[in-house]
Amino acid sequence: MDDDGLFYGRYIEPLEGRMLRTVRRVVWDPDLARDALQDAVVRLWQNRERLRRHPNPEALAVRVCYHAAVDAVRRGQRRRETGGVDLEGRPAAPGRGPAEALEEREQHEAVVRAIAALPRQQALAVLMRVVEEQSYAAVAQALECAEVTARIHVMRGRSHLRRILAPFAPGRARIGGAA
Q1: Which residues have CB under 8 Å from 45's CB, separation 6+?
Q2: Can you give the pLDDT at residue 176?
Q3: Chain Cα centroid distance, residue 82
Q4: DSSP 8-state secondary structure symbol assigned to residue 25
Q5: Do 70 and 8 share a structural domain?
Q6: Which positions ≥6 away from 156 have C-beta within 8 Å?
Q7: Of 1, 37, 119, 125, which sits with the fewest C-beta atoms within 10 Å of its C-beta?
Q8: SS3 of 54, please?
């Protein structure tokens, strides 16, 4: 068994880039993303024996990062709702006005809320398959289920997200693709 002193170098350090990308896809604010990554690393450290025994430590680490990111977003939303945080958020992209930045932020928050509203298995399946572009086999291994079950989680998650996010879809007034 590995010495606890070698745990970080063996299990966490090689995955840091992927873990940070996973967190940033959920949390757009760089500072909040770093905080969420730190939370994920602490969780992984606290559960290091489970990570060592897991058949796919990378998949488990990504799952822990996803949950830490969703938790960070939820904490941020609660702080904004109570007035504890400035609503400026991240800066607008160059050449874009405040209205566009606000609309983009609202859309991002709607997506994060929609993913957070999914059952945990579906949320992780969608994140891994759609966002991270992982194979169904990798999703199944992370979820500790059969590959066909992973496909079902992705399908149901995407369907649920489509319904929730329909108001944000371009051309939403059109039905059946006709203009």
Answers
A1: 7, 8
A2: 40
A3: 24
A4: H
A5: yes
A6: 122
A7: 1
A8: coil
For residue 173, pLDDT over 60 is answered with: no
Domain count, the chain: 2
Helix (H, G, I), strand (E, B) or coil at 47: coil
* Rounded Cα gap, residues 26 and 77, in angstroms: 13
Residues 81, 3: one domain?
Answer: yes
pTM above 0.90, yes or no: no
The reply to whether 68 and 25 lie within a common domain is yes
Q: What is the CATH number of the domain that holds 157?
A: 1.10.10.10
85: left (phi over 0), alpha (psi -120 to 50) or beta: beta
Tokens of 160: 């649920």
Q: Within this chain, do residues 79 and 109 fall inside the same structural domain, yes or no?
A: no
Domain presence at residue 127: yes
- Domain span at residue 157? 105-169
* Angstrom distance (rounded) from CA 72 to CA 70: 5
Angle at 20 between CA 60 and CA 81, to 5 degrees: 100
pLDDT category, 26, cuts 50, 70, 90?
Answer: confident
In a domain, 178, yes or no: no
Of 93-102, 133-142, 154-163, give the lowest mean pLDDT range.
93-102
